[in-house]
Amino acid sequence: MSPSDILTLATLAALLLPVYGHRDRHEGTTRQWSLSETVSFSSPEFLKLLPEMDEKMVPIDHAKVPDEVCLEMVEALANAHWKMKRPGIIHTGIILAEGAEIDPGWVDSVRKLRLLPLSFLATQSLENVKLYFWANVEGTHPLIQEIFGPLMGQYGKYIEIKKFDASAEIKKVCSHYESEKSTGELTAELVKIYESQSIVASKSDLMRAILLYNYGGAWMDSDVLLVQNLAPMLEEDWAVLMYADFVNPATLSVSRPGSPFITAWMGNILALGVNKSWAAYGPFMITDMTAEIQRSVANATCHVLPPCFFEGALSRAAHQPNQVAPLWDNFFSRLNRSLRSQVAYIDPSTKHSTFGYHWHNRWNQKIVDGSVAAEAEKMYCKRLNISLS
Question: By the 8 A CB rule, do 214 and 173 touch?
């Protein structure tokens, strides 16, 4: 049996059965949810968009949403009516190399890692959503203290800094994941998969899958800025199309702990076993799962958002008369003529043509004064009344 066949079976096992099991962590019992049970709690405006979105993403290897349609979808959520059933969580984080040192190739690391928390505080409904910042070091680590020191006095109640203890979180996954194997066997398998990874991106893919299985919520990579409130979309399962046949889990949401989607993802990870290839547990796996769901599941249990929602640099829908998504290589560089329109693209106070901006790993570039990144930092600090000096 080929790896793709194994992944197909794992996806279908979680998504095609009439019911699936997720052990209730409070009662110690197994609750059965029907896949036809209504479990969507997001805004009616977002729910209304999902059938059209799903239709335009089929087949995923040729998915394309016209620019004007993508923009209309974002704008339809501008004044969405939403009411969250439970407190929301937006996760992000960092995995430091052995010895808990920052990558020597990274430049202006503290300022860059602070941009997402600043954008979270400037854009989200803080009474309804918290930011969980995960790291494989203690919160007392100098890097963590430098990032969050200026924020915690005023905004500490909206941010939780958490140590990612892989073994403990994996054990929590396996104590609730339904399998013929024992919790101990499953835990050993998943720990082996995680610890075998030498590519940080692969560890990060596993980290987000583990955390979303345990806690639900949304994951945003640390190189993402939030542009507007995600609350209308938070209680659905979705990832984002980067381009045809490549679904990028840099920005994704899980409707609740142990949802059918995250259970299927975890099943695929366990079915694949140890694989040291880049993106094996992330984009490639999520894209293959999406294709299988499209072929086999009548009512999608997860959705793929078009690029303009978070990947504006790849979408012409992001180019409006007074708003232009920065190119990745320009985000930290000084711009003159186009600076105002590019800052407007990420400004929370403007009419939005996106929900977030992903600047794609430009960790080795210096933040130049007068760049979009530098102006964003100033804009957030002014809006939040924060001093970084």
Answer: yes
CA 260 and chain centroid, separation: 17
Cα Rg of the chain, angstroms: 20
> How is residue 310 written in tokens?
């978070």
Using CA atoms, how far apart are residues 338 and 300, in angstroms rounded to an integer? 40
Q: What share of residues in the chain are helix, strand, coil (percent, to 5)?
A: 45, 15, 40
177: helix, strand or coil:
strand
305-337 per-residue burial string, b: 16 or more CB within 10 A, e: under 16: bbbbbbbbbbbebbbbeebbbbbbebbbbebee
Is the Cβ–Cβ distance between 277 and 94 less than 8 Å? no
Q: Where are the beta strands (DSSP E) in 232-302?
A: 238-243, 246-254
**Would you put residue 360 in left (φ > 0), alpha (ψ -120 to 50) or beta?**
left
How close are the terminal C-alpha atoms of the chain, in Å?
59
Both tokens of residue 381? Answer: 């600090």
Q: Is the pLDDT of residue 141 over 90?
A: yes
Please give the model's pTM, rounded to 2 decimal places. 0.90
Alpha helices by DSSP H, 19-165: 44-56, 67-76, 109-123, 142-155
Q: Which residues pair with 91 in a beta bridge?
A: 132, 219
Sequence letter at residue 17: L
Cα separation, 178 vs 168, in Å, equals 18
Closest residue by Cα to residue 357 from 314, 312, 324, 291: 312
- DSSP H stretches of helix in 177-320: 183-195, 200-215, 260-272, 283-296
Rounded CA-CA distance 252/356 in Å is 12
- Predicted local distance difference test score (pLDDT) of residue 41: 56
Q: Which one is predicted more confidently, 338 or 152?
A: 152
